[in-house]
Automatic annotation (TrEMBL):
Top-level taxon in the UniProt lineage: Bacteria
Naturally occurring in which organism (per UniProt): Vagococcus penaei
Name the record gives this protein: Uncharacterized protein
Amino acid sequence: MKLKYFIQLFLCFTIAIIIPFSIIHLFNITDIALQLVLYLTLGYLLLVLPLTIIKLNQNKEI
């Protein structure tokens, strides 16, 4: 794995954790079920979309 790709993966993963966590604390959401839904939905979207874009860009470079 190239260093550039590893750094991109790490940043996407970190952002996918931090943003849902921040939103839940910003809106003071205390319902566990709603927290779970937000973590799963936002985490999935924030992780999959950038990784798909990165992968498509890598395929164009080849």
